Amino acid sequence: xxxxxxxxxxxxxxxxxxxxxxxxxxxxxxxxxxxxxxxxxxxxxxxxxxxxxxxxxxxxxxxxxxxxxxxxxxxxxxxxxxxxxxxxxxxxxxxxxxxxxxxxxxxxxxxxxxxxxxxxxxxxxxxxxxxxxxxxxxxxxxxxxxxxxxxxxxxxxxxxxxxxxxxxxxxxxxxxxxxxxxxxxxxxxxxxxxxxxxxxxxxxxxxxxxxxxxxxxxxxxxxxxxxxxxxxxxxxxxxxxxxxxxxxxxxxxxxxxxxxxxxxxxxxxxxxxxxxxxxxxxxxxxxxxxxxxxxxxxxxxxxxxxxxxxxxxxxxxxxxxxxxxxxxxxxxxxxxxxxxxxxxxxxx
Length: 348
Hints:
By secondary structure, this protein is of the alpha/beta class. Helices cover 47% and strands 18% of the residues.
């Protein structure tokens, strides 16, 4: 005999199917409220982390708590490449990721990693805040399943070593340098005659201490906080690259937002970068725990900090010509020339 389903069983099955069909990557936490995740790799005290937190607070406030964003610093959701893949697949809603990593997905993002492309901080910020620049760069992301809505940043990168003062490209020749495992960074230091090594960031201190490497390149703030300056007493403020990050949103999640909510997210991105920059600037004047400036810390710990003259920095930029030529082919003349024109326009 055929067994018939009871009305209760049918209702249970129907309810379960409805539940499955209604699943969204943003997890409901109460009626009319969704909780989403925002991942990045910066430590909690850093300007980038504070900016991401400000983003989340702004969205929650402006949506009256409807969208509650949980932030995950310090790579809690995985490395940057992993998070990029998670956002691309839709299993993570939002992340702030360096262009050094994102260029593996969107090659045009490499334009921001061109060594010495920005002459100074003010010009960099004015250029990046130009709406036409954002529109142009962000336009390449949707085809890769990513929606770019704003900036975050680590900092300008500097050069520290334990061998000698560095003022010219020739001074770097022959040094073993730890760099980010990114083609542009490797090519940059090869062009300068160094021996670049893409070792993991957590291994940098030990590698410097044991002589596996002679130098490393990170923002001076990072170098002090990670204690790299304990084993590299020569610091040159090369500011060769701005470690810029882009806030990316999963395409599926973005499409689930209303027009008004999308507007709020873009406003939140502006709040994030403003907070990010202000906190980083403040950290230069008052380091965590010690509460003294970077300059005072350097004097106290016998660290030599060299600030390049305009002419010295120009010598480094000219040395990068072969690297620019190589990546111009990958990035495309249109975007490359567009960015150079915008940088020239905004130069202070």
